[in-house]
């Protein structure tokens, strides 16, 4: 087994890492890319690495027979980022990188995380929840949130199923689209401002990473803009005031703690007029592809991808 020097270690360590990737969610392709990048980075850091696609029919048997010291979960979306795989790993007593069952489930469910943020006093855009088979009063929604809204399935990531509605007709269509992905839909007030993201690293004493400003080519940061090189511009540090930057870091860390996240998270926020910083959502397994935001923020903080992945492994062993 290879040996590697890890962040903050005075002694050499040796561990077998299994990278979980792929899966059955709508974000499968992103997950495959994330997993490949993480596996490569961990190998460069000196770990013995194996990769496993959780979509395999013999996934559980393969996981057990691999006998990993730790699992690095790179599964985005359902059946990976939502606490399901974390629960399996808990039952098998296998340590893993990232948040536990409850934090993963709460963060993945945009409705539940919104409720948690509101209860904790974190600033977030106004919202209405719509369920399948409910009679929806479109006019009441626009009266409460404004004519322009953002419509999201409760349990999808990477902006899958997300639409911006500009009027009542588009709102009805957007809700129908989102209900095709989930039986709960979040309709959110559209906030005009600077869209930013803040990565967070740590367990009991998390830190925030440099703030990234996001400028999508499309109207909002949709799936295409997120994962197509050149479709969005990332600016580090974000062109916002020092006060807004500090506030964004505070909100991202508090959201990490409110949900009970561990290891890593990435908060998406928007800075509105008057330096008003609003939290949109928190991701517990951010993308780790070549165009992903958490590795970019870590690099600006001085951590290469191998350094970042090694640090996350060490944080997992601190649980």
Describe the structure using short key phrases.
alpha+beta, six-stranded antiparallel β-sheet, 319 residues, 11 helices, four-stranded antiparallel β-sheet, Rossmann fold, single chain, D-amino Acid Aminotransferase, Chain A, domain 1, Dna Ligase, domain 1
Write up this protein:
This protein has 319 residues and is an alpha+beta fold. The protein has three domains: 16-97, Rossmann fold, CATH 3.40.50; 106-123 and 192-284, ATP-grasp fold, B domain (D-amino Acid Aminotransferase, Chain A, domain 1, 2-Layer Sandwich); 127-189, ATP-grasp fold, A domain (Dna Ligase, domain 1), CATH 3.30.1490.20. 36% of the residues lie in helices and 23% in strands. The protein is built from eleven helices and 13 strands. The protein has helices at 28-44, 59-66, 84-91, 101-108, 110-119, 138-145, 168-179, 223-227, 242-259, 293-300, 305-317, and strands at residues 16-21, 48-53, 70-73, 127-131, 149-153, 163-165, 184-189, 194-202, 207-208, 212-216, 232-235, 263-272, 276-283. Strand 1 (16-21), helix 1 and strand 2 form a beta-alpha-beta unit. The radius of gyration is 19 Å and the shape is globular.
């Amino acid at each position: 087994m290879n040996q590697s020097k890890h962040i903050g270690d005075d002694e050499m360590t040796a561990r077998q890492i299994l990278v979980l990737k792929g899966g059955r969610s709508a974000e499968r392709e992103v997950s495959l890319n994330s997993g490949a990048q993480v596996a490569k980075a961990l190998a460069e850091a000196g770990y013995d690495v194996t990769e496993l696609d959780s979509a395999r029919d013999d996934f559980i048997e393969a996981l057990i027979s691999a006998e990993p010291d730790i699992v690095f979960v790179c599964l985005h979306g359902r059946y990976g980022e939502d606490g399901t795989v974390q629960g399996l790993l808990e039952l098998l007593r296998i340590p893993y990188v990232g948040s536990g069952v409850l934090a993963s489930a709460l963060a993945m469910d945009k409705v539940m995380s919104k409720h948690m943020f509101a209860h904790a006093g974190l600033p977030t855009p106004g919202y209405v929840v719509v369920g399948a088979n409910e009679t929806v009063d479109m006019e009441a929604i626009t009266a409460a949130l404004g004519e322009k809204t953002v419509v999201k399935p409760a349990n999808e990531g990477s902006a899958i199923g997300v639409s911006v509605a500009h009027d009542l007709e588009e709102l009805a269509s957007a809700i129908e689209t989102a209900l095709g992905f989930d039986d709960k839909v979040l309709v959110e007030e559209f906030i005009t401002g600077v869209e930013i993201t803040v990565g967070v690293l740590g367990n009991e004493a998390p830190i925030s990473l440099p703030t990234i400003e996001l400028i999508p080519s499309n109207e909002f940061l949709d799936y295409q803009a997120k994962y197509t090189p050149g479709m969005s511009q990332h600016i580090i540090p974000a062109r916002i005031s020092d006060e807004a930057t500090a506030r964004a870091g505070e909100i991202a860390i508090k959201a990490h703690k409110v949900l009970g996240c561990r290891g890593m998270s990435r908060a998406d926020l928007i800075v509105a007029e008057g330096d008003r910083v609003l939290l949109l959502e928190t991701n517990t397994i951010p993308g780790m592809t070549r165009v992903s935001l958490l590795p970019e923020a870590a690099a600006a903080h001085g951590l290469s991808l191998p350094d970042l992945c090694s640090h996350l492994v060490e944080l997992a062993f601190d649980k």
